[in-house]
Amino acid sequence: MTRRELAHWARQPVQMVVGLVFPVMMLLMFGFLVGGGRGIDGEYVEFLVPGMLALTMAFGLEATMTAVTQDLGKGVIDRFRAMPMSSSAVLVGRSAADMLQSAVGLAVLAGVGLLLGWRWHGSPAAALLAFALLLLLRFAMLWIGICLGMVAGRPELVQAVQILVWPVGFLSNAFATPQSMPGWLGTVVEWNPMSATATAVRDLFGNPSAAPPSWASDHAALLAVAWPVLLLAVFFPLAVARFRGLSR
Question: ABC transmembrane type-2 domain location, by residue (predicted)?
Fold first, then answer.
């Protein structure tokens, strides 16, 4: 099942390239066209790149949802379920391919960040832990996409669900600090799962986080693990239950 998903990359290279280029375009746009960095001590690019790495973990979710709904609409999943194979292989194969693509996307975006002047100042072990937290967030977001894709059922309904990804992504500290926002909005941003991951990753990279003193910022690493685990605890069983109930 994983090889099947990877074969789609060779048959549809444009989709793969767009998925890699879009976060790079966002990084360049906010770094050079929109970038401000109010309340940030140090280079804005060192604040921006870790935030973009976290935000990228939500991008591409619509591709996962579309792939699931297309397989449902064409009856592909029904044929797989009739074959002598583990039913979990369908979802696991989809998630494994998505995680490989996410790892490639992280590497590309981090490479562009290095070209723009971003550097990490922590140990190699801390940097690896930062990337592990990013992929953990992606894994949780992936299962949200798989679950919502099966609930939507049709590709044309994906766009309606996709609209929800943008507010959640931009209501984070990827581009600006919570203290530069109105009080109530800053609180919402501070408790966003992507904000927790972005803050924890900035700390591990040794980049400026500019996070105001609060429980959420002081325990960002804990929240960067707790949020994805909580999301997985909710959406993983929902996705599995939905998949098992497809033929009922």
Answer: 14-246
